[in-house]
Amino acid sequence: MSDKLTKIPESPKVGMVSLGCPKALVDSERILTRLRADGYAFAPDYVGADVVLVNTCGFLDSAKEESLAAIGEAIAENGRVIVTGCMGNEAEVIRARFPDVLAVTGAHQYEQVVDAVHEAAPPTRGPFVDLIPAGADGEVKLTPRHYSYLKISEGCNHSCSFCIIPQLRGKLASRRIDAVLREAEKLVAAGTKELLVISQDTSAYGVDIRHESRTWKDREVRAHMTDLARELGQLRTPEGEAPWVRLHYVYPYPHVDAIIPLMAQGLITPYLDIPFQHAAPNVLRAMKRPANEARVLERIKAWREICPDLAIRSSFVVGFPGETEEDFQYLLDWLDEAQLDRVGAFRFEPVEGATANDLPGAVPEAVKEERFARLMEKTEAISAARLQAKVGRVIRVIIDEVGEPDEDGDMGATGRSQADAPEIDGQVLLRDVPQDLKSGDIVDVLIEDADAHDLFGVIA
Ligand code: SF4
């Protein structure tokens, strides 16, 4: 054998710890996509990595602590650590605690992160690197192949008093509509069955670029939520099916009304994620929430008349400064009327740099706890009743995971209905599924039972 065999250079390996919200996950995917294009491989653990990237979240103080703990763990386990993401804007805090970090970059500073990785572990260049197989679309995805997040903009033009996102991520910067649609088309062609549209404020999409039009498939399409929804509703998978299109972070501006008929026609998923945060006018004013004047209860009623299957998810903050017992009771009564399908709740927590910290009327921790428990009790009862009403119906379910056969050879699976977004909402648990069922399949399911969060059923 020749002793002149060319040694294939080994690609440097990058480890990634991704914390925070779906938007941060999309950032992690973009960074990894760039790095793979540069010839890097990925290490599944600290030990095999030449450098570890920690994508941090800096939204709440508790998230910052979690980010600092993750950085500490990566330093202890590997030692060569680059920090990026929202908490990267507080480089001094990170460097004071961990002087050994190699670099700190902020949210969306893709170039800087990639440069820092190049410096810490120089890329291997050469023809062999190009033999590394790419995924179907050449992009790295951290979500399962059958669903994908589609980020349509960065930043936010509002100034909610509890939030520092505009400081962290800047003003609204919308992506071009044709670029968004091209990405969505690629994802669907590569196997995505469900697109999750995300941004800080999806209903404000395109405001910053004056809803500019671009040519897409021989027609003019505006950078506007309605046009976006309509176009996403035209996409088809390679099997000719319409993918599910789920809208997150929508504020109840009047133009949202135009989306509901698209849901009723089956073009987009009858699901709206609207972070109301509160209902009492005093609290909403103190929170400086966008679109809080809109007569929301009437509109929800009208939306459900047009699209009876519309599922609404929301989140609420209890114990906001100045929230009185009357305000809180107002919220509970409002929830009785609104009958939201899914609700997440948070106890107010001051965030460094947020103007809400200076508001008078701090609510004692014990009162926050008590209100939190009352809110959860109320929303669980509503959720249980709404899920119970689905028992006996046949609904569409997307399969997330198929289990192993038990000793009798029976298999179960978990999936989600159109009312359930991945990771934040409930599940549909299936019994006795066929052996050839796969994640990403969309099937008709007869609902046999329900609890406060999940549905149980069998393929119809
Ligand atoms: S709308 Fe308000 S809460 Fe949402 S990102 Fe903008 S400022 Fe923050």
UniProtKB/TrEMBL annotation:
Q: What does this protein's record comment on cofactor binding?
A: Binds 2 [4Fe-4S] clusters. One cluster is coordinated with 3 cysteines and an exchangeable S-adenosyl-L-methionine.
Q: Which residues form a coiled coil?
A: none
The listed locations are: Cytoplasm
The MTTase N-terminal domain covers 12-122
Instruction: Provide the Gene Ontology terms for cellular component.
Output: cytosol; ribosome
Identify the EC number(s): 2.8.4.4
Q: What class of enzyme is it?
A: transferase
GO biological processes: tRNA modification
What are the UniProt keywords, alphabetically? 4Fe-4S, Cytoplasm, Iron, Iron-sulfur, Metal-binding, Ribonucleoprotein, Ribosomal protein, S-adenosyl-L-methionine, Transferase
Which Pfam families does the annotation name? Radical_SAM, TRAM_2, UPF0004
Q: Which residues are noted in the entry as [4Fe-4S] cluster 1-binding?
A: C21, C57, C86
Q: Its function?
A: Catalyzes the methylthiolation of an aspartic acid residue of ribosomal protein uS12.
Q: Its family?
A: Belongs to the methylthiotransferase family. RimO subfamily.
Name this polypeptide is given: Ribosomal protein uS12 methylthiotransferase RimO
Q: What is the lineage of its organism?
A: Bacteria, Pseudomonadati, Pseudomonadota, Alphaproteobacteria, Sphingomonadales
